[in-house]
Write a structure and sequence with these properties.
Elements lengths: L2 H12 L6 H11 L3 H16 L1 H5 L11 H15 L2 H21 L5 H14 L4 H9 L2 H9 L8 E3 L7 E2 L4 E2 L2 E3 L3 H10 L15 H23 L5 H8 L9 H27 L1
Antiparallel strand pairs: 1-4, 2-3
């Protein structure tokens, strides 16, 4: 996925792109989709020019889960760490229901089950303040930092926290603020407070963005109810397309909101097709 941006970084470092570094990094940021991932890929491409051996020794990515059982096992572990066993159990229950119905309607098929297993987990593990805290303090991030840099003394983190970050009027989203290493202590507290997520005591849960994240889960579960009640072999392709829509909802802030509206419009169209096919 990062190969294109890796090659842009490689080309820049070779001097093949007549653009300043700041302009390229700004363009990645303005695009708004997987910003940090693309910046990392860009920088890795630059590193491949000046120190290719350093790129070769970087840790390989974990194997991609490609069966329903593999996806289910991975996501149950993820959602348990994200929230708790009950949250993971809610997810596992939905996947089991889908697998049972698909096995009855289309024996041997896992297409719908795999799609639901991946996309429902995506919606149920949205990156909120508690998850950011967990990801920074679970040990993996620090391990990758130590693996990438031989020596460093200070760490800075750029964030756009609710209520604190000023609005960038040109882009219509909050600006990022630079925080020092002390913010890692705050992340540790947030990680331990994840049990507040979704409760009336959740101070972040009242924002429009967090309410929208929870509504996406509820809407997806409602779509699954429709699918499970009406699924037949002829409707399987439509069901898979409907179940796969969350994969297109990416980015943050205004970018994610635009993608969400497009996905909702497509979902309404697919539900109508689903119901029309049943009645015809």
């Amino acid at each position: 996925i990062g190969a294109n941006m890796f090659m842009v970084g490689y080309a820049y470092q070779q001097g093949w792109l007549p653009l300043p570094l700041e302009a390229l990094r700004k363009a990645i940021d303005l695009n708004g989709a997987s910003v940090q991932f693309n910046l990392d890929a860009f920088d890795l491409g630059r590193l491949a020019v000046v120190d290719p051996d350093a790129v070769k020794v970087r840790r390989r990515a974990a194997p991609v889960a490609d069966t329903c059982d593999a996806i289910l096992t991975h996501r149950i572990s993820l959602l348990t760490r994200y929230q708790n066993a009950q949250w993971a159990g809610r997810y596992a229950g939905w996947v089991k229901r889908v697998r049972d119905v698909e096995a009855r309607v289309a024996p041997g098929s896992e297409q719908l089950s795999k799609t639901v297993a991946a996309n429902l987990a995506k919606l149920m593990s949205y990156k909120d303040e508690y998850e950011v805290g967990r990801l920074y303090t679970d040990g993996d991030w620090r391990s990758r930092l130590d693996e990438t840099f031989e020596d460093y003394k200070q760490i800075s983190v750029w964030l756009s926290p609710p209520l604190l970050a000023p609005m960038d009027k040109a882009r219509g989203r909050p600006k990022k603020i630079k925080f020092g290493q002390w913010v890692l202590l705050v992340f540790g507290v947030l990680a331990r407070l994840k049990w507040l997520r979704g409760t009336v005591l959740d101070p972040f849960g009242w924002t429009a963005e967090r309410r929208g994240e929870r509504q996406l889960i509820a809407d997806y579960e409602a779509h699954l109810e429709i699918i499970l009640s009406k699924l037949c072999p002829d409707l399987l392709p439509i069901a898979v397309e409907l179940a796969a829509l969350p994969a297109a909802i990416r980015g943050f802030g205004a970018t994610k909101e635009a993608a969400r509206r497009l996905a909702e419009d497509r979902a309404r169209h697919l539900v109508e097709r689903f119901e029309d096919t049943m009645t015809s």
